[in-house]
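Pipeline run #58 for the internal structure catalog. This entry was flagged by the ingest filter as a single-chain record with no existing model, so it goes straight to prediction. Upstream metadata was stripped on purpose; only the residue string is passed forward. Reviewer on rotation: M.T. Logging verbosity set to normal.
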Amino acid sequence: MKPELSVVIPIYNEETGLAKLFARLYPALDALNLAYEIVFINDGSRDQSPALLADQFRSRPDVTRVVLLNGNYGQHMAILSGFAATRGEVIVTLDADLQNPPEEIGNLLAKFREGFDYVGSIRRKRHDTIWRTYFSRMMNRVREKITHIKITDQGNMLRAYSRNVIDLINQCGEVNTYVPALAYSFARNPTEIVVEHEERAAGESKYSFYSLVRLNFDLMTGFSLVPLQVFSMLGMALSAGSAALVALLLIRRFVLGAEAEGLFTLFAFAFFLMGVILFGIGLVGEYVGRIYLQVRARPRYVVETILQSSENTPNPATTQSSTNQDGIAHAKHS
């Protein structure tokens, strides 16, 4: 039977918290009284997470599917691999750390049934470190100005998507992307609701400060050309300012004679302009790097195997070590 709801959960080194996740997730979904499936994606975990997922599959094979990737491809590539395996009409993404309570899925579905095709979530009270909270808020404001994608809480992965939105996402072949923003760009009627936020059940965040900066930089360069346009305008402004400065120095030279006092000022301007130029080159390099990764056309991720019951097996998969049109390699599919 085709499920009405698919829940996609990426897993990376979560062995200490999986038991608590299972204990809360399945009862919460059973209480919804609808056909559902849970798609776990093991994103190259190095601990016992794959074994625990396999045990859970054997315990509840009727509603559990496990996608095992052959390496670590990152949270968003793992989610995309889960999207490719889903069959539900509504797809919900959820982190495994239980900071987003599984019981909130019912609230997302209730809002979804009001006619929306994308339901995001905003954490009522974040249980993160102060620097992480304020940095995220600052980057949210910058990102929204640049991309015009209105996601209030971009770090929260508890979201619901319609089948139409997911089908469009599955057609995309982007190597680097941010799933909620990509879905927002396809949604016709998006909305957001406020949800609870809890302490991590176990373990620690997989996102370092560098990872957060990298994610936001990818997001801004992946969904907008505004950074390049800003630097183009900055270049024109600096050129005009430099021309005005040269004119001023020439006037002073002829009126006041030779001067040496402005030498260090010129050095300061020179170093500032060199910094701007280097940053601009790095920004252009970011876009060129994205193009480079894209034109290589390598698989975005490689599915090693999928644990699923025979009743839940979808259409025949690609053969061993093959790559489909979406750039997804399958080492094995069973």
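catalog note: Residues 105 and 303 are 27 Å apart (CA to CA).
catalog note: DSSP finds ten helices and ten strands in the chain.
status: ready for reviewer M.T.
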